[in-house]
Amino acid sequence: MKPETIIKAEAKNLGFSLTGITSTDTPDHFGVFEAWLASGYHADMKYLSRHDTVTKRKQPKELMSDCKSIICLAFPYPNANELVVNDSKPTGRIAAYSWLPDYHYTIPILINELIIRIENNLGRKIDYKAFTDSAPILERDIAQRAGLGWIGKNSCLIHPDHGSFFLLAEVFTDIELENDQPFLADRCGSCTRCLEACPTHCILPNRTIDANRCISYLTIENKGPIPRDLRKYTGNWVFGCDICQMVCPWNRIRGGNTDYQVLPSTEMQQPLHDTIDELSLSDVDFNGRFADTPILRLKRKGYIRNIATSLGNAKSEEAVPALINSLMVDNEPLIRGASAWALGQIGGKKARLALQDRLVQESDGSVREEIHLALGQMNDTLTLE
Hints:
The protein is α+β, with helices and mostly antiparallel strands. The protein has 16 helices and nine strands.
């Protein structure tokens, strides 16, 4: 049996929905990536523009000098359209890939097992390096060249049978393998649903994303306050965003992903979180609850910032006492500022009095500014009424 056939069969047995093989040549759309960087669309993700990482994205072989072939893998995660939302109370939504345990830990376990199986079948040790969102690689570009799908208008890699709800991984190996044919067809056609559905209009015409406006960036990578002009568009997303994938016809006509797996001794995350209760999480509570999940990377202050913002967007009057508590006692200026904004959005006498009381004792300039703006918002609302 050909080694390529063995590799694909073993990968499928381990839960990978797609496998393809390609070369270490420069990715076809590297020029698009360079232009994206030059335009500042990578926001504050400065590591993307470092010379050494740009070089490795241009020349994948820089990551492994004796690499002869790249095995590209796609690991499925739940289709966000499967979630039934209950609007009876304020809830925060997390991106579907984070429903499963952190892929940075689970996928490498599967790849290690894949390598063992390949070596057993080939009867020899192989030299390899494995990556999953852990090295400077233009993953979607390389995966398209390996035949795993096309890069859609929403910038996601899409497969006609599996949609786009999957994570990518790469195995650089010293095995000389036959390359798969690239996926050249553009199945997006004239559809523009993703562009129309994006609340912040961050999707660019050349199938890239302006990270400065992307909800996923704003709620995860962004370490400071969410820009005021964009907060209302984040809705109830508290970790990432799936909107542009949810509206994609290729994620709807095939139904939900049913072939994703949860590894033994792990369990799925709750995709909806009671946002009012979340405001009271301590550092210890947060670290314990979200250990081994992607959400841990946010740290408590980023997560609670997002929770407070979502409550402001929901204009949830029942959240006012919890938001007042965060405004008054939380040690993090980022959280106090987000709580002040949320109280300004909700309004009411209790919120106003709390903001005025906190203003007297608040020493952080950024929080004082948020309080002034929140009180101004409430004054404007009163004037309109």
